[in-house]
Amino acid sequence: MSIRNVWLLSAALTLAGCANYEADAKKAILEKMKDPDSVQFRDMISLSNKDSYGQPHPIVCGDYNAKNAYGGYTGYERFIFDDGRLFLGTDGDALYSKCPKK
What pTM was estimated for this model as a whole? Predict the structure, then answer.
């Protein structure tokens, strides 16, 4: 197997992993919502970050909007899904530096 093929295979596996991580992020958000069918997502991006041991792990950043108990949308709020932990709105303020600026 040539170096180019190894690189292409590695890139494909990395992208596939990010897609699954985005799905995990969406699932975590939907589980917290009163009306999961109403949730809208935008500006989602998957990034690779390093943990405290220097090992890579993906992070998903983005915005979500959902209906409240009265049936009205509340407006988009930021989220970050980092190492399996979900931070919504201002809960993740310290972590948003890992996400690209809008």
Answer: 0.73
Q: What residue ranges in 1-102 does DSSP mark as E strands?
A: 40-50, 56-65, 77-82, 85-88
Has residue 11 got a pLDDT over 70? no
- Grouping H, G, I as helix, E, B as strand and the rest as coil, residue 52 is coil
Nearest to 61 by CA among 16, 12, 97, 20: 97
CB 58, CB 79: distance < 8 Å = no
The domain locations on the chain are 3-98
Among 61, 49, 58, residue whose Cα is nearest residue 17: 58
Q: Which two tokens stand for residue 20?
A: 């699954």
Query: Which tens digit of pLDDT belongs to each residue from 31-88?
Result: 999 899 999 999 999 988 777 788 888 899 999 999 998 999 999 999 999 888 999 9
Structure tokens at 72: 């009205």
Separation CA 28–CA 8 (nearest Å): 30
> 41 exposed, middle or buried (CB, 10 Å; 0-12, 13-18, 19+)?
middle
